[in-house]
Amino acid sequence: MTTVSSEPTTPTRRLPRIGVRTTRRATAIAFCAWVFAVYDYILFGTLLPEISDRFGWSEEHAALVSTLISVGTAVVVLGVGPLVDRLGRRKGMILTVSGTALASAASAGTMNASYLVGIRSLGGLGLSEQAVNTTYLNEIYAVTEDEAIKKRRGFVYSLVQSGWPVGTLVAAAFVAIFLPLVGWRGCFLLATFPAIAIALLRRGLPETPQFELQRRLRKLRQEGKADEARQLAAEYGVDETPAAPLVEIFRGRARRNTLVLSFAWLVNWFGIQIFSVLGTTVLTKAKGISFANSLVLFIVINAVGFAGYLFHGWAGDRYGRRNVIAFGWILSGILFALMLTVAHGTVSVVILYSLGMFFLIGPYAAMLFYMGECYDTQCRATGTSFINAFSQPGAIAAGAIATAMLASGAHWNQTALLVGAVGTFLSGFVMFAARSVDTVDD
């Protein structure tokens, strides 16, 4: 883990090791959980045109509903991090995937816009999956006996984080296949059962040794055994000073990255909201492609995005995660701008859209693991969740601006360019202000 304490101590004991089989099982389950969390999250954006037609919403009203859902999602996401730092990583992962199941099942019963806003806000539990995953796996990989994963932890985590394009692919494919058969309500129900199965599988995973140590230290302090707590912390070379996790992420070396990465996420989610969450809307409204064809093209586009995760995970290990993220987002903004302004045929649209998605979502493979490296064990889940929560203010701002532009008569082509492409481009430059981090094993 990254040690952010200003007074590190020399450890005389080391944390228990995690076996190869357990490490790989935890990795595989984390991937599956993220796939179905994304499936649920993206499904709403993919089906928004169908839901809007069912309830007779205008484009402006549909954009407003999406924005209000982002507000509720942000509130839920912000609460997950401190909870996971308090209750544990394992319980946190069970909570997030259970939230995915609940949000999917309840969305199938949508009766009106107010109900949908309330239920889809629970999707914030599923969206928190990536922050909890990176917290858990960052700590597991630091003490694993699996040397293959330990040496290539960034690349391996990119496989987990690639659940975003895979989940998007699953959502688009299931909608294309099952929408005519079971309707949009049935598509939501399809995500419920895999999420429940994953929650049950996670019950068999171990808690991380780092959190177990923090829990022991906290218990000793609560029992009035402060000297024993200090001695135990010194033996493991960790900072024993009790502090609120939310305070810790704004102290010392952690503060700069908390501020920079939060703003980078906020601005980059202008692009995520426009080109990923509302991707089918961009293809249908901005480029004149039919809804049925947009589903097929979106599958192709996200298949390329999957390769982007693997590339950026590998490149982050080799060239440094911060720079790889920054250059990727800058290139993505340029490619999306070209797609919206100069691409006219279907082939050119798909090529530029795919490359834009490659460099938009791919850097998150490096970003999530980089975030986990920025914080100490006692505040890691809070830090990653806090930054992750800024995706929703970004989505809210993007939705509000898009709604205002559409209401004033702007075309979707102009809206996607000024909100999505420009936001993505700027987020890359913001990343250069982040501090590089050095990692050491727990």
Automatic annotation (TrEMBL):
Organism: Streptomyces lonegramiae
Domain Major facilitator superfamily (MFS) profile residues, every copy: 26-438
Location(s) in or outside the cell: Cell membrane
PROSITE patterns reported for this sequence: MFS, SUGAR_TRANSPORT_1
PANTHER family recorded: CARBOXYLIC ACID TRANSPORTER PROTEIN HOMOLOG
InterPro entries linked: MFS (IPR011701), MFS_dom (IPR020846), MFS_trans_sf (IPR036259), Sugar_transporter_CS (IPR005829)
Membrane topology designation: Multi-pass membrane protein
Name of protein: MFS transporter
Keyword annotations: Membrane, Transmembrane, Transmembrane helix
Positions of transmembrane segments: 26-44, 64-84, 155-177, 183-201, 259-279, 291-312, 324-344, 350-370, 390-410, 416-434
